[in-house]
Amino acid sequence: MFKPLRLIDSKPTDRPGNKTSGTRTCFNAPTAPVLTRRQAVCATASIATLVAAGLAGCSKSTNQTSASQGDASKPATGSTFAFDTYCTFTVWGDDTALSQLSAACAHYDELFDLYSPSSDIARINTAQGAATAVDPDTAQLIALALDYCAQADGLFDITIGAVSTLWDFERGVRPDDAAIADALQHVDWHGVEVDEESSTVRLTDPQAKLDLGGIAKGYIADRLCELLASKTKATAAVISLGGNIAFFGTKPDASTWNTGIRDPNDPGGSTVVGTAHVSGGSLVTSGLYERTFELDGTTYWHILDPRTGMPVQTDTASVTVACPSSTTADALSTTLFVAGSKNGGALADTHQDTAAYFIKLDGSHAESSRWQELTSFES
């Protein structure tokens, strides 16, 4: 069973923003956004308005927020650009929490950015097998990720970086079969050594590479909720990190958090298949539609199968996981996506307080046995 997040009392530092830092103003609203991965979404009362607002016209700037004007029933909203997506925050009870959330996102982006030479992950990947001193957050995240790797039976592997760095889904670059086969020899999570006490990480294979894209945002969402609880007076919040949504506290009217789930088979991205109603926890979606390219008549998508190094072959267009821990939901959404709807649904049923909703490539739907119980889903 996937284990719950182990929380520690470490303090995010207020570091300068990374090379892609920037922000966009969001909207006052009590509901959570339509779920997508690698795509900005803001918390709004109207799902249709949300989809239309999206990323249109986004530009990098200083952090922008909308205050609650002293009305406890109204939230303050803010956003920042990190982790290759627009992160949005809707907070009740403490307008000052917005700046703390943005600063924390900048901190984690600096630590976990695979392509930033100064990040902890990049330094581990280029250490040629030597032990690398890292931030305690990095050591904890990697230790947690290894727990999930051990439970996923090859469907989830954080050393997929040896392969994922060969692909370029922005420019449409497909590595040749020989390069993929060579890189696959270095995909094996067993070769990752973590010492949380000394905050060091070592790759026993000098050619192995970490890629935490399948779990990092979930971990960050959980840590942001912890920050709200320990460092602010916030009473409720929605945290959206692309397709990772985390809920904190209770809304002033004590109503459920309502989240629309996007139809991945709609090219325009404006159609939702239904709404999940949850009392807390997290909803995380993985889907084929976020980063794709076509080459010689074949469509390639960014979710790679660690067993083959190729885009996963699945009957699933997207999977949404509901779980108390966003870390678990993130890792599990990737795992279930690779597993497919039949095996993935059975796997979700083995985890306590967890449920999954699959939208298939043919437009049909499937769900694990507790999905309706945990989400009161309305289609």
- Indicate the CATH class of the domain at 112-203: Mainly Alpha
How far is the N terminus from the C terminus? 29 Å
Which strand order spans the largest sheet, edge to edge or round the barrel? 1-2-3-7-8-11-14-15-16
Which stretches of 5+ consecutive residues score pLDDT under 50? 1-62
Largest sheet: 9 strands, antiparallel
DSSP strand count: 16
Beta-strand proportion: 15-25%
Elements, N to C (H/E): HEEEHHEHHHEEHEEEEEEEEHHEEH
CATH T-level topology of the domain at 112-203: T-fold
- Which value, in Å, is the CA radius of gyration? 19 Å
Give your account of this protein's structure:
This protein is α+β, with helices and mostly antiparallel strands and 379 residues long. The chain has a domain at 112-203: ApbE-like superfamily (T-fold, Orthogonal Bundle). 26% of the residues lie in helices and 22% in strands. The strands form four sheets. Strands 1-2-3-7-8-11-14-15-16 form a nine-stranded antiparallel β-sheet. A hairpin with a 2-residue loop joins strand 2 (76-82) and strand 3 (85-92). Residues 1-62 have low confidence and may be disordered.
List keywords for this structure.
three-stranded antiparallel sheet, alpha+beta, 379 residues, 10 helices, T-fold, nine-stranded antiparallel sheet, single chain, globular
